[in-house]
């Protein structure tokens, strides 16, 4: 979240120095001024609106992408708050909920300033979400004072991590099952081949999550976290199979996009638990 936040600030700031650029090169020229040119270009190119967007349009898209990321984390935090009972973890998640709610608000504010052509205030507004994300992160690293058996913290930590992984695994299983259904219906050779790639990769994703759960149960959060990176690669491989010539429209696109967002959140949450 913070990497994207920093990128947005630099991106908006760079507009102050952009001059005499043809719109065809605007994405490349502006992204070159950011800390992560590849992420900037990839993020904008992935949005079909970018192709015809002017300076204001690109700024709007970049902020909206960050806002969507913040909204994803906010929604996932709300889901976890309904499931977690351990007081300290619940308190940390409440801090995250409140701060990511504010982050979404900051980005809405920034969009209003962009629409008004006020890039100074638009840029200032995007600094708020980075502070909000930091506050969320820091809530997990502060030493919690527990009067109860300290082993309960470890148990709840495992439970929270397990829930995250199981939710991601359920989404991967859902896509896997849908792919199997489509494979029985699709006759077109290239599309069928793409779906076979997806089937194999989502089958592997489900396996990775099972592996991660085993590591969580063993208290090995390093390997548990590493195992959750595999499904993200598997989902990317599925997506990419449709973009290779001859290009085919993926019937799984919406679900895979949602899964990739969720898988990324799962990886981020488990990575955070390593610090607890």
SSE layout:
Layout: H1 2-14, H2 26-31, H3 37-45, H4 55-83, H5 87-115, H6 119-125, H7 127-141, H8 151-185, H9 189-217, H10 221-227, H11 230-243, H12 253-273
Helix pairs in contact: 1-4, 1-6, 1-7, 4-5, 5-6, 5-7, 8-9, 8-12, 9-10, 9-11, 10-12, 11-12
Describe the protein.
It is a single chain. By secondary structure, this protein is an all-alpha fold. It is built from twelve helices and no strands. It has helices at residues 2-14, 26-31, 37-45, 55-83, 87-115, 119-125, 127-141, 151-185, 189-217, 221-227, 230-243, 253-273. The longest helix is centred in the middle third of the chain and has 35 residues, at 151-185. 33% of the residues are buried. Residues 1-24 form the signal peptide. InterPro entries: Invertase/methylesterase_inhib (IPR035513), PCW_Enzyme_Inhibitor (IPR052421), Pectinesterase_inhib_dom (IPR006501). Belongs to the PMEI family.
């Amino acid at each position: 979240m913070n990497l994207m936040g920093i990128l947005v600030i630099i991106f908006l700031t760079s507009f102050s120095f952009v001059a005499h650029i043809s719109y065809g090169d605007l994405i490349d020229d502006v992204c070159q001024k950011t800390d992560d040119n590849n992420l900037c270009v990839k993020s904008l190119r992935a949005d079909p609106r970018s192709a015809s967007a002017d300076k204001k349009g690109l700024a709007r898209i970049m902020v909206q992408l960050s806002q969507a990321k913040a909204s994803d984390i906010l929604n996932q935090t709300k889901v976890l708050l309904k499931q977690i009972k351990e007081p300290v973890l619940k308190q940390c998640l409440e801090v995250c909920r409140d701060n990511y709610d504010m982050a979404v608000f900051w980005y809405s504010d920034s969009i209003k300033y962009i629409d008004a052509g006020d890039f100074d205030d638009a840029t200032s507004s995007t600094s708020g979400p980075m502070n909000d994300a930091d506050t969320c992160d820091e809530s997990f690293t502060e030493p919690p004072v527990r009067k109860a058996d300290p082993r309960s913290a470890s148990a709840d930590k495992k439970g929270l991590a397990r829930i995250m992984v199981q939710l991601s695994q359920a989404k991967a299983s859902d896509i896997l099952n849908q792919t199997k259904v489509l494979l029985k219906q699709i006759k077109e050779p290239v599309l069928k081949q793409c779906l076979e790639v997806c089937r194999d990769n989502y089958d592997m994703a489900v396996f990775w999550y099972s592996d991660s759960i085993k590591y969580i149960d063993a208290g090995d959060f390093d390997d548990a976290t590493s195992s959750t990176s595999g499904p993200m690669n598997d989902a990317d491989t599925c997506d990419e199979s449709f973009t290779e010539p001859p290009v085919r429209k993926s019937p799984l696109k919406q679900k895979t996009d949602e899964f990739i967002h969720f898988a990324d959140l799962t990886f981020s949450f488990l990575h955070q638990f390593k610090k607890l």
